[in-house]
Amino acid sequence: MALKARALYNFQSENKEEISIQENEELVIFSENSLDGWLQGQNSRGETGLFPASYVEILRSRSGSSYTDCSSSPAGSPRHDSFYTATPNPGISYQGSFEDDDDDDWDDWDDACTVVEEPRSAPGTNGHPSPNLQYPTAYGHHQHTGYRPKPALERQDSMSSSKRGSVVGRNLNRFSCFVRSGVEAFILGDVPLMSKIAEVYCIEMGSKGPQWRANPHPFICSVEDPTKQTKFKGIKSYISYKLTPSNINSPVYRRYKHFDWLYNRLLHKFTVISVPHLPEKQATGRFEEDFIEKRKRRLILWMDHMTSHPVLSQYEGFQHFLCCRDEKQWKLGKRRAEKDEMVGASFLLTIQIPTEHQDLQDVEDRVDTFKAFSKKMEDSVLQLTNVASELVRKHVGGFRKEFQKLGNAFQAISHSFYMDPPYSSDALNNAISHTGKTYETVGEMFAEQPNNDLFLMLDTLSLYQGLLSNFPDIIHLQKGAFAKVKESQRMSDEGRMDQEEADGIRKRCRVVGFALQAEMNHFHERRVADFKRMMQSYLKQQIIFYQRVSQQLEKTLRMYDNL
């Protein structure tokens, strides 16, 4: 039965089976049951096809509504949905990949392993999750907090239970990302301090404000040689990628599903970091040469951002992913990453901030400026993506056809000149015929040119669409923390809270504020480098292309010189 739905986010189709949808667009869903995270339906323009299930909200009557199909997250990112539990539909199969061999868990590496008793995560395309998923509660059955309750440990502010009545009230909306991420619990001092914290991430004051301390052992990692392989005597096929980290210079081979596993660990752990989205999945054609090449290019960009991030690059799970070659050690490291306690709100305990004073109002103003900037940049990135995508279609279709028509017309002129031999000039006829063939060649050159410039531009734009879509949720965490500080200070001024407890809330808010500012600075640093490289590459390739076209035309022109 057809259902009405509303698009939560923009989605740009990338093959003929998919359709594009726009935020807030009304849709018709043909079936509520998704196929590997995709729904089939019709958009407002009458186009029929597939789009990600995580990008839409099915509209129901109030009496039959549930939170299963809803998402209040602006980005829809799994990072802040990891503690939200919805009632799954038993008729829907959720898998971590569209590849038909994903039901075999971890191949020969880990046939019996599960992710800390959690169902397998299934983010939709472009890094967004399916809202129907149950995400891991690696910390017992507390669905709305990001920490493992340990009765033997004291709260961070060491407040006795007799004073619990004075603490700042909790948000009534228990489904907001501020609550689900566990940051509210951290701000209020309800995340237990660990007896020993092995990992520490430091923030320093730089020339432009707080910044992550650089990785003391920087490295890069190449992604090469996508190779189709088979298992079970050819019954199942997959693509493996050769990864070679520069710090060990020893290759490992990973499949997309292994990247997917790592990506979900990153989202689960790093609450206030904009984790780059993995290249999107595709419902069909995953073994086609163009798709494999496109995925490789985007994995290279993803890996470049991972290795350049001062925090993500040092994550033990990432290092294990890049370096481990032994099967037994792989399983041990994988389980260790899945049992990591310093995730979500507890990750904030690993952050060391500078002692410099920052006025919270100044921080809030800076965050507001970045929020406006990121929204404007997200809109402009989408605009350039649409323009570039349309230009690709013209190169492959319209431009090629127009030059072919022009070439055919020139050749028709040449053939007509042969009709009256006494007045026919073979040299002129051949020159005009060659001109027609030259324009046909130029048409083919236009069709092939996106491989050299536009596709590379679209790869970078796709990466930044993902990065920018993460920030609304991260900024919401900071806004929630600010609100708690203001509320606690008001309660302290009214004598309903000890100043010591209000100071504790302010101190923990500083951690979130410094982390967000460090992430903002890292984003700007990468943005300048990436867009400089993107624009230089595009312009250089454009110059080379038109020089080649010019050479073809000049060569043809010389045929007329001695007529």
From TrEMBL:
Chief localisation class: membrane
Keywords: Cell cycle, Cell division, Cytoplasmic vesicle, Endocytosis, Membrane, Mitosis, Protein transport, SH3 domain, Transport
Localisation per UniProt entry: Cytoplasmic vesicle membrane
Entry keyword Membrane: yes
Membrane topology: Peripheral membrane protein
SMART domains to which the protein is assigned, alphabetical: PX (SM00312), SH3 (SM00326)
Residues where a 1,2-diacyl-sn-glycero-3-phospho-(1D-myo-inositol-4,5-bisphosphate) binds: 255, 257, 295
Family the UniProt entry places it in: Belongs to the sorting nexin family.
Record's protein name: SNX33 protein
Originating organism: Pampusana beccarii (Western bronze ground-dove)
